[in-house]
Every structure is written in structure tokens, then in C-alpha cells.
TrEMBL record:
This is 4-hydroxy-tetrahydrodipicolinate synthase. SUPFAM superfamilies: Aldolase. Pathway: Amino-acid biosynthesis; L-lysine biosynthesis via DAP pathway; (S)-tetrahydrodipicolinate from L-aspartate: step 3/4. The lineage of its organism: Bacteria, Bacillati, Bacillota, Bacilli, Bacillales. The gene is hpaI. Its EC number is 4.3.3.7.
Length: 309
């Protein structure tokens, strides 16, 4: 996908699909394929895997490649495919990003390395090296709450200027002034995706390209509809959906993502509700709150709850 074409196609709700596990903790590739089919049938505009919601740090390097390849085959060109290829290790990030290119991904999403807390100059050198190692478009992923370092606007602008295949950013940054300045300094045609659920609609209002929202795992049709309404000029409908989704957004982050999302999908019968340690399902109290919210949204019938372990 050429960079100009990528900027035109990579818009709307790009769902960061969870990585399903079976009862033994093995990757459930059949469930992953079924989830992707459900997303696309529900109107999702793009598919991502092995991002934060996909528990990449709990997967081996080979498992990440297998998940990416399975997802690419499941997508089958129906919508853009944007796997997460970043890690805390520079060489692994390049290896995974090259693999994404090899299997025909439309773009790669590369997270700010977590735990290391690099300087801004080190981040510049890291992302520039990754971008220069491949030809596919790169979407930088800035999530300071997870990485303990914020990719500053000036650093991102340098990368956008020096690396033509760095075409956008997923901003999981609650600082709305920051994301406004991203478009100011990087250009209004730079793709800005929201990774903060309550900022998905506000970012569209300033010229954002869409969202990569964990909530799309549970209500892909609603998150896609919000974007469809906005791009069709139906501002009122988009605003209504923004507020309609707020309670669900909150409960899906009642504990660390993707625990609540996987609990919800388990209740809905979409996956086995399993995470790999050190992550785990939410507490029983929080699971009951999630269940009540799903019932309220019509996603679950009122039935006798079964405790997940």
C-alpha cells in the first residue's frame, strides 16, 4: 500500500483484537479467526493484533508471528491489517516489523518501548531505524501510561519530517492539548488515531483519522457506527454514540486492559476468558459489574452468573 493510499484507507475503527487462549493457555487460533470475521461482519474498518489488548508481552516472538500470520489470512484483504510490531527490544521490533511487511500487512503499529524509559533522542533513533528497515507505513503508538515515557510532539514531528513512511500515530495520551499539537506540528494530513476511549469522538472533531479502541472488541458495530456517522456528516448521531458508550468504556477499564474485555467476551461466548500471568481476570465483584453493564447494553441476557477463574 503506497503511503498516500494508506492515508486514505487507514481510517475509522481499527479494532485492536485480543489474543484468545484456550483453557491450557495456548493461543486459540480458531477463536482468533472467528473474532476477526465477527469484527468485519460488524462493520469494523480495520484489524490490528498484538497491540496492548493482544497481550504481546505475554507471547513468545514465534507466537506473535503466528498470531499476525493467522490474522492476515483471516482478514483476507477485506479491510486494512495493521499489526502491532513494537517491543521493549529494538532488534525484535525490527524483526517483527519486517515480518509484517513480508506477510503483506498494510501498515505496522510500533509502540514506544516500554520499561526502558528512553530519552527523546533515543526514541527518535529507535523509530527512525525501524522506519528505514521497511517500506510499509508505520503508525507510532504513544501510550505513556504503559511505557512511562511520553513521545513528545517535537520528536514525533522530526520523525514525520525525516521518515516518509511514518504516516500517523495512535495517541493513548489523555492530554488533549498534546494531541492537538500533534496535528499542528506534524501536519493536518498526519493520521491521528485515538487510543483513549473518551477521546475517540473529540479527536475526530479536530481532524483525527479514527480510533484503535479496546471497546471495539466488545461492541464493534457501535464503535464503527460512531465513525461512520461522523464521516457521513451526522454529527448528532456520532455525539449520541459517544455518550452512549461512556458507561461501557468505563467498566471495560475497571481493571487493567485486557482483563475486563476478555471477561466480557467470555460472558458473551466469544472466547475462553483466559489471560496469561502476570495478567488475570478482574475480581468477582468487578466481573459482576461487567455482567450488569453487558445486560444493560443488551449484549447479554439476564442469567445466573458463573464465576470465572
Amino acid at each position: 500500500m503506497a503511503y498516500r493510499e494508506a492515508k486514505e484507507r487507514l481510517r475509522g475503527s481499527i479494532a485492536p483484537v485480543v489474543t484468545p487462549f484456550d483453557e491450557e493457555g495456548n493461543v486459540d487460533f480458531a477463536a482468533l479467526t472467528a473474532l476477526i470475521d465477527w469484527h468485519i461482519e460488524s462493520g469494523t474498518h480495520g484489524i490490528s493484533v498484538t497491540g496492548t489488548s493482544g497481550e504481546p508481552s505475554s507471547l513468545t516472538l514465534e507466537e506473535r508471528k503466528q498470531v499476525m500470520e493467522t490474522a492476515k489470512q483471516a482478514v483476507a484483504g477485506r479491510v486494512p491489517f495493521v499489526p502491532g510490531t513494537g517491543s521493549t527490544n529494538h532488534a525484535e521490533t525490527i524483526e517483527l516489523t519486517k515480518f509484517a511487511q513480508e506477510i503483506g500487512a498494510d501498515a505496522a503499529m510500533v509502540i514506544v518501548p516500554y520499561y526502558n524509559r528512553p530519552s527523546q533522542q533515543a526514541l527518535y533513533k529507535h523509530f527512525k531505524a525501524v522506519a528505514e528497515a521497511v517500506d510499509i507505513p508505520i503508525i507510532v503508538y504513544n501510550i505513556p501510561g504503559r511505557t512511562a515515557v511520553n513521545l513528545e510532539v517535537k520528536t514525533l514531528a522530526r520523525l514525520a519530517e525525516d521518515c516518509p513512511n511514518i504516516i500517523g500515530v495512535k495517541e493513548s495520551n489523555k492530554d488533549f492539548e498534546h494531541v492537538n499539537r500533534v496535528l499542528w506540528h506534524c501536519g493536518r494530513d498526519f493520521l491521528l488515531f485515538s487510543g483513549i476511549e473518551l477521546l475517540c469522538y473529540p479527536m475526530l472533531a479536530i481532524g483525527g483519522a479514527g480510533s484503535i479502541s479496546a471497546t471495539a472488541n466488545v461492541v464493534p458495530h457501535k464503535v464503527a457506527e460512531l465513525h461512520d456517522a461522523w464521516f457521513a456528516g451526522d454529527v448528532k448521531r456520532a455525539q449520541d454514540l459517544h455518550f452512549e458508550l461512556m458507561e461501557l468504556n468505563d467498566v471495560l477499564f475497571i481493571e487493567t486492559n485486557p482483563g475486563p474485555v476478555k471477561a466480557a467476551l467470555g460472558m458473551m461466548g466469544k472466547i475462553t476468558p483466559k489471560l496469561r500471568l502476570p495478567l488475570d481476570l478482574p475480581s468477582e465483584e468487578h466481573q459482576q459489574q461487567i455482567r450488569r453493564t453487558l445486560v444493560k447494553y443488551g449484549l447479554l441476557a439476564e442469567a445466573a452468573p458463573q464465576q470465572m477463574k
